[in-house]
Specification:
The complex is a heterodimer.
Chain A lengths: L1 H17 L10 E3 L6 H17 L6 E2 L8 E2 L8 H13 L2 H28 L2 H12 L2 H9 L7 H15 L3 H17 L1 H24 L6 H24 L1 H14 L17 H4 L18 H5 L20 H20 L6 H20 L4 E4 L2 E4 L1 H8 L10 H20 L5 H18 L8 E3 L5 H7 L6 E5 L8 H10 L12 H8 L6 H10 L1 E7 H5 L4 H9 L6 E7 L10 E2 L6 E6 L11
Parallel strand pairs in A: 6-10, 7-8
Antiparallel strand pairs in A: 1-6, 2-3, 4-5, 8-11, 9-11
Chain B lengths: L1 H24 L2 H11 L6 E8 L3 E2 L1 E13 L2 E12 L1 H6 L2 E9 L6 E10 L5 E8 L4 E4 L2 E4 L4 E2 L1 H9 L8 E8 L2 E17 L2 E14 L7 E9 L6 E8 L2 E10 L1
Parallel strand pairs in B: 10-11
Antiparallel strand pairs in B: 1-2, 1-3, 1-16, 3-4, 4-5, 5-6, 6-7, 7-8, 8-9, 11-12, 12-13, 13-14, 14-15, 15-16
Classes of the chains: A alpha+beta, B alpha+beta.
């Protein structure tokens, strides 16, 4: 227990160092990098929960965005008791920044700690456990997700559920059954992707037992055969029980899947039907697993050159699946031992290691296949991969490269075994600790991500939003260019500071979005009239957003806006920079012009 | 065990000699020596042999300086390039590309860019991009985009550089437009090499360049190094480009 506590502190120390300077600016900064604006949408959600709670506004159908039509924030109908409950509690009792940071840091810690427990339990070697914890908890995938997708940082449940099923497999007692059941409740409650990965991992374990049994010709031994069948039945029973308990939260999803998956158009905003082509762009590529992350201070530039190529993939985030060369070498050591045992014969001493190493090799292969595109094309021959078939069952899932985290978990465990076998060659504990520390250090260097620091100061917004907040009376705000192709998460985020309803952040395909399309051209006098009808008083024009499209149409539109007779120019807010050179911030902006709408109101003529 | 080790060592030695041969083949000295054996070092048609990582042959690329022509009643300079994967690779993965750049004969900026592209299992694509250099606008499929003053396409950019006076440390800062996006091409002459081949002294200019998005996006960037002959047309004899597929080395094999 004492040693586990020391290990926990060691992981906490590593978290402080690897996320530096986050812990010292925990109420002002969040972890983040240059490539995304997704965290801002979720931080807005956290603010919206508290704001709605305080002001007795609806939590689900909010009018704060997409005004005056509003938006259903639970359009899929999915609400997880544990996951969403936890998020709501944090949102109500803390600030959006703290809500975000608590989840991120806790997930990072638990990912490392649970995988440490898993590897330690399997290898019976604490040093191996620590290395396993570092590999899984601090791998580049975890950091990339931490900077972009909060839900996908809940990877700790993968280690926990594996530990649960392994304990239950070894001893089918009530205590372990309950432990496995609770780990399942967690797995099924926080993120649907993580739940999917966990589901495939568990299915692989059960399937492996059957293969292993066949391999050892245990069918001839009725007692072992019965034991395994009994275990599989009990396990399926526990999984079903967890699913039954959580059924009400999944029911709307299942209903939507049956009703809407094949009757609606596939789109990035359709929670039941994602475009099939996305499976190709969001699948792992040969180099995704082997090239260091682009954020690595030494090797990152090399990887940067491969971004967008068919060998690596298009995304900074999705294709960061780096396993690390040192973990791969240690995995190879474990594999070599496994092969030797297979050759020389299994006995009571090596049976346990042989079984689990075999399983994690099998899991790595299965997860790797799952992370592949729907098919490989060699000349005119198509070889179909699991994602092709799974899309028929789950058309709502498209980012199969995320199965890379399951490969990582398998590699973390196998590396633990590799280190254990390597340490067996050394006699003294001191040497063992020295060797293990060396490997931990090299792995941490491989996974390193700063400088520059990967934190964003989100405590301040550009001046214009404070000015808006101080304007008397209630009114609506419109931010231009209008985000009619996809919701602009920054427009949402800035609402935290000005707290006025906005017409932005509509979802394509909705009536609000159709109205948005009709008033996309601000230079058109009719647009000003419709804005007046909506209740918009101030329009914010982000000049640079028009210019960076490089489209002549947009540049011309920007030039025409000041000539709209129904808009009165109020003032222009100059561009702003971040206060600290090496820390990104949300305060940074290009110049923003403010106009007041002075038109007569006009009802928009848009067909439903 | 010993047999395995000997086999493994044998493979390693073979690989070492193959890499050594490939490395030597892609040196300016050997390229010039081979070109001199074929004939002159001057010519309007240049045939390159691109290799992936400088080892795996990909196909052929031909650059042509077609000279001045009259296009739609206007005098222009025509540059063209064709490239295709070689026969064996084409069975697995076929690529064929043809580009034409119509350049202003006086200041060498692009006026029109034509591109034809074929790839296995993909529909053929034809592109016609019109550059209005006076108004800083390019037009593709009816969509107009803003370009920066004096914009080049990749072909005309190299041609422009070849027409300049070189000196070590000389920097060329060009506006480049490719795939409908604006880039900055920053090239620098880093050194001059000299060697003797067949009793002739050959001078080589080495130029390093970096291409980056003007909007500072890290997503699209690449770099390349070109070895130019120190002759009147500054013939490029070796190009090493770091693309998002990895290193591509193109060696000049023939001049006509």
């Amino acid at each position: 227990m004492r040693k586990n506590l020391i290990t926990s502190f060691f992981f906490l120390f590593l978290i402080i160092v690897t996320t530096y300077p986050l812990i010292f600016k925990i109420s002002a900064c969040i972890p983040g990098f240059f490539s995304t604006d997704e965290p801002f949408g979720l931080m807005w959600r956290s603010w919206q929960i508290k704001y709605s709670f305080k002001n007795q506004l609806p939590l689900r159908n909010t009018l704060l965005i997409a005004y005056p039509y509003g938006r259903d924030l639970y359009a899929s109908g999915y609400f997880s008791y544990l996951g969403d409950g936890w998020f709501h509690l944090l949102s109500i009792f803390t600030t959006p920044i703290i809500t975000w940071n608590i989840q991120i840091l806790l997930n990072l810690f638990l990912s490392a700690f649970f995988s440490y427990l898993l590897v330690f339990y399997l290898t019976k070697n604490r040093l191996s456990g620590i290395l396993g914890g570092i590999i899984f908890g601090f791998c580049p995938y975890q950091f990339m997700r931490m900077w972009q997708h909060l839900g996908l940082t809940y990877n700790e449940w993968l280690s926990l559920v594996l530990l649960g099923i392994i304990l239950f497999w070894e001893k089918q007692i009530i205590r372990y059954g309950i432990f496995f059941f609770i780990s399942l409740l967690f797995l099924f409650s926080f993120d649907l992707s993580v739940m999917y990965f966990g589901g495939v991992t568990l299915a692989t374990f059960l399937f492996y037992i059957l293969i292993y049994q066949g391999q050892l010709k245990l069918l001839k031994r009725r007692d072992l055969f019965k034991f395994n069948i009994k275990f599989i039945s009990k396990t399926i029973g526990i999984i079903l029980l967890a699913l039954i308990i959580l059924f009400p939260q999944f029911f709307p999803l299942i209903k939507g899947r049956i009703k809407l998956s094949h009757t609606t158009t596939a789109s990035a905003f359709n929670p039941y039907h994602r475009p099939f082509d996305d499976l190709f762009t969001q699948s792992a590529r040969p180099l995704s697993y082997f090239l260091p992350p682009v954020v690595h201070p030494v090797f990152g530039k090399f990887t940067q050159m491969f971004i967008g190529s068919p060998l690596y993939g298009v995304s900074f985030t999705e294709h960061t699946l780096y396993l690390g060369w040192v973990p791969l070498i240690l995995t190879f050591l474990a594999f070599r031992r496994w092969r030797r045992v297979k050759k020389l014969g299994i006995n009571n001493d090596n049976y346990r290691d042989y079984f689990y190493i075999g399983f994690f090799i099998f899991l790595a292969i299965v997860a790797w296949f799952f992370s592949q595109p729907p098919w490989w094309r060699i000349g005119s021959v198509k070889i179909f991969m699991p994602s092709f078939f799974m899309y028929r069952i789950l058309p709502m899932y498209r980012a199969y490269c995320r199965f890379g985290i399951v490969v990582m978990l398998a590699v973390a465990v196998l590396s633990g075994y590799g280190l254990k076998f390597l340490l067996e060659r050394f006699k003294t504990q001191k040497t063992k600790i020295l060797v293990a520390s060396f490997f931990c250090g090299v792995v941490l260097f491989e996974f390193w991500n700063w400088p520059p620091f990967k934190v964003i100061d989100v405590s301040k917004a550009p001046y214009v939003y404070y000015w808006l907040r101080n304007q008397p009376q209630e009114f609506i705000v419109a931010e231009y260019p209008l985000d009619i192709e996809a919701p602009n998460e920054m427009y949402k985020f800035y609402q935290i500071f000005h707290q006025k309803p906005i017409i932005n952040c509509t979802i394509p395909g909705t009536y609000a979005n159709k109205v948005g399309k009709a008033i996309a051209k601000l230079s058109n006098p009719k647009t000003a009239s419709v804005l007046k009808w909506i209740g918009v008083k101030y329009v914010l024009v982000h000049r640079e957003n028009y210019l960076k499209t490089e489209l002549v149409e947009q540049v011309e539109e920007l030039k025409r806006i000041p000539h709209n007779p129904y808009l009165r120019f109020i003032k222009s807010f100059p561009s702003q920079d971040c206060p600290y050179k090496n820390i990104m911030c949300t305060q940074k902006t290009d110049s923003i012009d403010v106009y007041e709408v002075i038109a007569e109101p006009l009802i928009p003529m848009v067909e439903e | 065990m010993n047999k395995k080790l000997i086999f493994f060592l044998g493979i390693l030695i073979l690989l070492f000699f193959f890499l050594l041969f490939k490395w030597r083949e892609n040196t300016p000295y050997v390229i010039v020596k081979d070109l001199l054996r074929e004939g002159s070092l001057e010519g309007k048609t240049l045939k390159f042999y691109p290799e992936y990582l400088g080892i795996i042959p990909i196909g052929e690329a031909i650059l042509k300086d077609e000279g001045e022509i009259v296009y739609e009643g206007k005098k222009v300079y025509l540059l063209s390039a064709t490239a295709h994967t070689h026969q064996f690779l084409s069975k697995l993965f076929k690529v064929k590309a043809e580009v034409k750049s119509f350049v202003d004969p006086f200041n060498l900026y692009t006026l029109l860019f034509l591109q034809h592209f074929e790839m296995s299992n993909r529909p053929k694509r034809n592109k016609k991009i019109i550059y209005d250099q006076e108004n800083n606008i390019m037009e593709f499929e009816g969509v107009k985009r803003v370009i920066l003053p004096h914009t080049h396409d990749p072909l005309s950019a190299i041609f422009y550089i070849r027409k300049q006076e070189f000196a070590v440390g000389e920097v060329f800062d060009l506006n480049l437009n490719t795939n409908q996006k604006n880039y900055r091409l920053l090239a620098k002459v880093i050194r001059k090499e000299k060697f003797r081949v067949r009793d002739k002294t050959i001078g080589i200019w080495v130029l390093e360049a970096e291409i980056k998005r003007r909007n500072k996006s890290l997503r699209h960037s690449s770099s390349f190094t070109i070895w130019f002959l120190d002759n009147s047309s500054k013939t490029p004899i070796l190009i090493k480009a770091m693309t998002n597929m990895g290193l591509i080395t193109s060696r000049l094999g023939k001049i006509q």
